[in-house]
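User: I'm curious whether this sequence folds into something compact or stays loose and floppy. Could you predict its structure so I can see for myself?
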Amino acid sequence: MEIIVCIKQVPGTNKADIDPVTGVIKRDGADCKTNPYDLYALETALRLRERHGGTVTVVTMGPPQAAEVIREAYSMGADHGVLISDRRFAGSDVLATSMALSQAIKTLGEFDLILCGKQTTDGDTAQVGAEISEFLEIPSAAGINKILDTDNRSVAVRMDMPSTTATIRIQFPCLLCVEKDIYEPRLPSYRKKINTLNKEIAVLSLDDFTHKDESKYGLDGSPTQVRRIFPPESNDKRELWQATAEDLSRKMYDTLHELKFVEGSQ
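Assistant: Here's the prediction. I'll summarize afterward.
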């Protein structure tokens, strides 16, 4: 079984730097990690490979430092890694990102299954997986919390729906977006990390794609634009009050009213 897993490098902190002009996250040199949801997709791929044989290829898009998440995937057992890196892809929204990922996947040849995590912790759109499948013209399903059965031509899965669950069988090639409770991701292996330090990572740019129209990628190819993005504000201000119970209750109410947590008069 030939499996492709889409992974992403996301900020490792909620204090990420934001470009004041474009409104997108500055990823160069930032403290980053593998998107946690993608680890469940990778674990699913590794278990399917252990059961049916084949290879697991991880694909990510980002600046050169995004290769770190591929190295982590190698230490978990991935066979191949592909980094899509080109300044012309900077600022991509979900549509432009999906376009680039689908084009990269087309260069890899035939595959049986693409696995994605539920969403990313920096965007939370949960749209990229479905859009990749549309560009590749293959069926897809989301909310997958269990792999029930696989054969040479299809996979049976259980989908977690808003108020119920559904069981479907979907033909290969296809794309699945998995939930975080499908499997517990394994820890990276130190031995594998050492053994794969020099393992090749294929790097693709726009020049490697069949569709080379720059207007379909990056900010130019993004129909949605971020007007403002900012890290959560932190407030560690503290006050110590000493008074009678009646005065303290009045002061507490006045403070909550001033902060607009309560309405009306006391």
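Summary: The mean pLDDT is 90. Residues 36-52 form the longest helix (17 residues).
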